[in-house]
Amino acid sequence: MSIKSFGITRRLILATTAAMALCTAAWADAPPRVKFATSAGDFVVEVYPDKAPKTVENFLQYVRDKHYDGTVFHRVIENFMVQGGGFDAKYVQKKTRPPVTHEGREALEKGGPRNTVGTLAMARTNDPHSASAQFFINVKDNAFLDPTVIPPGDPVPRFEHRGRVFENTPRANLLNAPELFGYTVFGKVVSGMDVVNQIKVAPTGAGGPFPSDVPKTPITINSATLVK
């Protein structure tokens, strides 16, 4: 091999190595993904630890613990959302860890997604800090579920919410108002939205302890697996 040929080969090797390193770095920086294999088909979600770190880690730990395996979508409303992750096939609620702190506002302030079609959010009770394992997927744009970002100032000079105007309101009063927390969005469906759309139109009725919105034919999460 000539000196010239050797130099070209060496440059090709270095370029290939650099390209592989860039690809590896990009893969490492990509959002984690979870594959849900369900009785209606499979879908994949990606989650955003840079936007809602505690929420994402909480969700991923339930995935690692196989908590979601064997649970059902127990609340399905065609023009709203599909909810699951909390009850087994006999509608017995699964035990959970302590709830996670609400991160909805922080996620929005970091440029996180809102409650739009295909996004993944934590379900909760009326207590904003009560989310544990249950999640829902928005099947329409649900802006009314979005957290409300509070304007700067203390007191806040002017704040309007759903037609009501507040003036010179202590900041803490607004930050702690339950109706302003909304729901923490922490991911979105990146493949298999057609499966989610099949789930949303499932015939529903009463089931277990629920008087309505339960699929008449159970839709089971067979497994939830971290794929990235």
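[next item in queue]
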Amino acid sequence: MSNSLVNQAMAALSTVIEPELHRDIVSLGMVKELTVENGTANFTIVLTTPACPLKDVFVRETERVLLPIEGINKVTIKWDANVPKGLHGNLDMPIQNIIAIASGKGGVGKSTVSTNLAVSLAEYGARVGLMDADILGPNIPTMVGLNYARPRVIDEDGQPKMIPFEAYGVKVMSMGFLADPNTPMIWRGPMLHSAIRQFFTDVAWGSLDYMIVDLPPGTGDAQLSLAQSVPLTGAVIVTQPQAVAVEDARRAIAMFDKLKVPMLGVMENMAGEFFGQGGGEKLAAERGLPFLGRVPLQAGVREGGDDGRPVVVHDPESPAGKAFAELAKTVAARVSVVAMANADVIPLNIIG
């Protein structure tokens, strides 16, 4: 192995820019274990998420800068991932990022989005938790096929902890596992706040890259409790395309702005002939936020939710299945940008 070739290769790689972080991959610490042997440059690229949408870009760009170097005729890349910590406060548990999935109104498919997003991230190799924070109307157990399940309790360092269920590689907790499904939850704000807080402190989540929190619709107690209880990496706003849904989504964005929660972006659900298309994209442009993508209205999404089989699992090649998989990549990339900005790795003014 020639040290000269290694130095030339590293210098060349320092010209490859990470498109979303706007810094070169060497200064970001993404290039590891570089060797050049028998004409082959071998190295590892450490991604900021297992769901990185940019692998093909990195392959193309590293080959572009390395292959012109005399003595290098082949590039071999290994992949690793280290999800940056996006939490900017004290949280006594090993969770890297907490992502709120919110909407201004009910019926826009927020729980469906939360479920398919969480499962997609897990399929890409991330460690994922899914918390159903819709305490009064929990739907996540149905959507992951865990109706009527009851969690076990263990002793962890002298404290009782509930063990979250696991479905499709995702750790799941919901009030639906604890309450009688035939009995209404008639609770005031302080009880909601306590329940959400306990879902963090009294559940043995273990180490997670992403915690997806499915919030109830609106701008009330649950949203306020979550923002006050734990540091959020950011929020995703879910809307349908039509005007009435967009109006309420606009209020949800304003609420998170007041709570100083970073906005990851807006996604449009149930797009198509019935509800139309474009409302979410227009809202994102109006507020200067990223548009994260749209998922088409598809009967299989509803059927999968009813049967406890997320569409990304039972029909991944369908338009909706592919759209959710792309949404996961986009959200993961946005989380990395926000997290690394919070860590002062990149300037805050590039986020948008």
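[queue empty]
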